Structure formats: structure tokens, C-alpha cells
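User: Hand in any protein.

Assistant:
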Amino acid sequence: MNLLGIGSDLCDIRRIERALGRHGERFLDRVFTEAERRRADRRNGQARLGAYAKRWAAKEACAKALGTGFSHGVFHRDLGVDNLPTGQPVMVLTGGARARLDALLAPGATARILLTMTDEYPYAFAQVMIDAGPVG
């Protein structure tokens, strides 16, 4: 395997709470995918805010791992966090984020995105590593 990028982010959960208070649905629509919203909205109170903050941190970490941040056509909604049936979080890239990932790959290579995230009020943390290897 070949390491293509690594990124991490620490998010203050209170920052997400303030953004929700100020911008509500507009903030959620602009930043989070439908799957992320469904998962976070199954929770209440602090757990809901932590779910959103972890996903915010994961998006930031992934944008850093891609080497672009939120520029060059990479937007928050292009970076989604989903979960496998086991509960393991996984990054799902679309749009400009997917195009950037594809541009990093050598011909015949496939990417693997590793994600870990956690929260302990008042912080949420995420780390992303992207590696590449042969298809198969």
C-alpha cells in the first residue's frame, strides 16, 4: 500500500451548536448529506450535537488528506460519513472530492479511506488516512 494522505481535525461541539442555532436547516443542508442527517437526528441533545461535530471533523480531516482543504471543487457535502452494518464509519466521496481522489491514484490503483472519530464533550475528533494499492 502507498500512503496518499493523512488528515485530522478537532472540532469544538459548541461551535456546531452555535451554527445550528444561527443557521438551522440552511447549515445542515449545506454541510451534511441526508444519510448523515438521518443518523445524527436519531439522537437527542448532546448526543445529536456530538454526531454532527464528529462528521464535521471527519469532513475537515478528509479534505486535508486529499491535499485540497475546501477548495479546488471540494465541498462539505462531497464528503459524507456513512456506516457499515457493523457500525464502522466510512467516508463516501462524491463530486469534486471523488474527482480529486481519482486524480491522486495511479492507473490501475484503488484507494482505501480509513476513518476514525470520537467525541467527548466539548470536543469531537476525526482522523483520515488514504492509501492506494492495486485493484483487487
In short: The chain has one domain: 2-135. The mean pLDDT is 96. Strands lie at 2-12, 79-83, 89-93, 109-120, 123-134. The longest strand covers residues 109-120.
